[in-house]
Amino acid sequence: MICEVEWHEDAVRDLERIPKNIAKDIMDKVENYLAKDPINLGEPLKAHWKGFFKFKAGKYRIIYMTEKTRLIIVVLVKKRDEAYDNAPKKIM
Question: Domains (ranges, CATH) in the chain?
Fold first, then answer.
């Protein structure tokens, strides 16, 4: 069963700021690959990102949370060196 994917407004804004071909590739990976098994394909994060997962897509990190209702909420898409700068409080 494939999970439904929701894109948080911050993630949409992040995608708009990167080259279109890379953004399309990231969206395809999330919708067609990660959505199949978000718990096992992603890595759980720690500290102030506890409860979130990361998924690597080249130089980019996709930060998301998942719920038992088979839903993935993508909250952030950033290059690795920028991905963990801000705590998730703005998302909650």
Answer: 4-78 (3.30.2310.20)
